[in-house]
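In this supplementary section we document a worked example of the pipeline. Step one takes a protein sequence of length 359 as its only input; no multiple sequence alignment statistics are reported here. Step two produces a three-dimensional model, which step three serialises into structure tokens for compact storage. The input and output of this example are shown verbatim.
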Amino acid sequence: MRILHIINALSGGGAERQLTYLAPELGRMGHDIHIAYSNDGPDKPELPGVILHRLKSLSNYDPRILWQLIRLIRHIKPDIIQTWIMQMDIIGGMAAKICGIPLIFREPSSGLVPAQMWKNYLRARMGSRASAIISNSRGGDEYWKTIAPDDHRHIVSNALPVDKIDKITAALPKEIKEKKTPIVLYVGRMEEKQKRPKLFLEALACVRRKKKVFGVLCGEGPLLTELEELKHELGLDDDVHFTGHLPAASIWAIMKKSAALVSPSAYEGCPNTVMEAMACGCPLVISDIPSHREMIDEKCALFVELSNIRQTADAVIQVIDNAESSKTRALLAKQKTLIWSIAEMARNYERVYKRCLRV
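The serialised model returned by step three reads:
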């Protein structure tokens, strides 16, 4: 099969990372794989056996993207088109329909992601006409139940390069001096609706009143300046470091060095950050939301009520004060990662593609 994946950037984010796992594996299985994208980003991956097509654009919704995609589709003649991220679900979906190519939607979130109403409306309309919807969680599949028929919906979990993660050595970035105090880690986009980094800092300030810890926040986003100001207001200037964007291997190294990863997200799909922390053996403090519960239970992590700063702080202290219990939970969580095979994920995607072509 010739498969065209359409995504807005190759910058190392969660969806991008899953595509960089999937695309080369599909190529190794004998498929002709193409990726169309608009932006490189700071961490463009190596993709052996994959043909890349850079689209010219002035913004995410530059109308030229649609015409470039139509020309590209007519040139390479793919059997299947799969879109990633809302922008390309809409624009890429339109191009697929104009060219008469079967369209595969990927649902990366558990439930409806907050967005402008017209974007959600257009995406839902486009998804209702897709040949298949592939969700990475039960929550994502639940959202599409009223829009797409049962035989058009599939669940394929995210995957991890577990062997590669195992080979990473625990380490901190060079700009952070070696710490004797426990490291509490946040990894994610710096925005508040979903990821809640403000809550992380506020909980860390509560922990800091009782115990000396060092907070590390990895990621970029529109809230970064505000978070720097909040760090100062909370008296955490010497106790918090923002790394900015880091390659995946560097984040895995920090995870292996950390006493706990805190994920206070309001919603997720199949969260890469939590999966990676599990594979790294890093103890978890995570929000009590369905997508986290879908992956693990209380034997593997400490769950906290959504937006409960005090409970989050207490859970971090519990992880640090009870090292043996924390290690036991982390080991049980790590065992669950052994089934998250990239090869199995690719085979599951291939089954959906073949089914769409048979219809």
